[in-house]
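Page 47, continued from p. 46.
Same chain as before, 108 aa.
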Amino acid sequence: MIIDEYKPEAISVEELFFNQNIKTGINVAQARGIVLVVGCKRGIPTFEYTPLQIKQAVTGYGRADKIQVQKMVKSILKVEKLPKLDDITDSMAIAICHAHSQKFAVKL
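Result:
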């Protein structure tokens, strides 16, 4: 299992947000549930952030668009290129948010 290989000190997830595509929302909810259960069973502290909190932490503006978030993730991590999948960049933004918010975060 990947969690055994990398041994994370904490898990941070985005608060569940349903847009218009319910099928995608259900898949995201299921994946998120697995992450939360595995974290809980392993005793790994787990934190949740809203999309607004993530955007605020990464860009300084809670209503930033996806492109702004991607540019700031790239800048903060000092990389020339981001992974092609938006989900990976989103997870990087959540990790950055957690790093910035760690002492204020609410543990689940």
